[in-house]
Amino acid sequence: MILGACSHTEKVAVTQPGDTKLSCAEIQTEFDDMERVLREAKKNKGASGANIAAAVFF
């Protein structure tokens, strides 16, 4: 029972079909794309109208 608290489910797939066939340049492009996504997510973090409405109604 105690060890059950340590388990987790995978929320995001860490591999995709075809990953083993990517070239170094393609892998770098994937990393660059993820960095861009993370920057956008951080920029858009905060209290949006939808977040406030969700908090008020629930």
Radius of gyration: 18 Å
Measure the end-to-end span.
32 Å
Choose one word for the global shape.
flat
Spans where pLDDT lies below 50 across 5 or more residues: none
- Overall pLDDT: 76
SS elements, strand count: 0
User: Secondary-structure element order, as H and E?
Assistant: HH
Topology at a glance:
Elements: H1 24-43, H2 49-57
Describe the structure.
This protein is an all-alpha fold and about 60 residues long. It contains two helices and no strands. The longest helix has 20 residues, at about 25-45. It starts with about 25 loop residues before the first helix and ends with a helix.
Summary of the model, kept short:
Helix content is 50%, strand content 0%. With 58 residues, it is mostly helical.
Features:
mainly alpha
